[in-house]
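Write out a sequence, fold above all:
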Amino acid sequence: MKGKSQTEIDYVQVEDPQYDAYKVDSAVQILKQGGVGVIPTDTCYAFACALSSRGGINRLYSLKKTDGGPVKKPLSLLCRDLAMVQTYVHSMDRRLFKLLKSTLPGPYTYILPASSQVPRMVMEHKSHRKSWKRKEIGVRIPDDPYAQAVLEGVDEPLLISGVPLLDDSMTLACNAFDIGENWCNEVDFVVDHGERPWRLSTVVDLGTSPPTIVREGEGDAGIFVDY
């Protein structure tokens, strides 16, 4: 299959959010229409679609499937603020709320029981139905101005998953100068904020007592020792 050209996807290059955050407006409109694209976050680039888009969710899961197998790890919700998080997870007690408030926005993904506001097709999608044992979802609030601008415009959570980089470099495998034969064929837009290291968030399962560190990443895992 021939790769998409730069003119066939909405490719936006940004440099300084004080001056060019408005450039994400086209990505916002594409997401509202059910599209799938790539945005920067405070850890890495991420595939993203609107949580309300059935078509976008299906496409995002297709991007994540490898070797025809199931998606083995739950995808995450990128949320604008704690009020949005509270809509999509079961009620949080005061202690849990204080923990999230003290660490977000930031490089943490918290796994929590999903509320009924999370679409069933996210929790029960055929690509992972046999792999996900619990009705849970990862939630993040990004400390990134462009991701926040997109979330502000879309006004709902984004379902996200990390984007592979080009080999071992810090460059997107799809860029404005070389629209290749990879995932570029499958997305509608890219918001490119330049090179960035492949950093992962610290993933914490708050559905267990004490919390379980699922993956150590950028966030300090030591703060959960005495929680």
In short: The chain has a mean pLDDT of 84. The first strand starts at residue 10 and ends at 13. Residues 54-64 form the longest helix (11 residues).
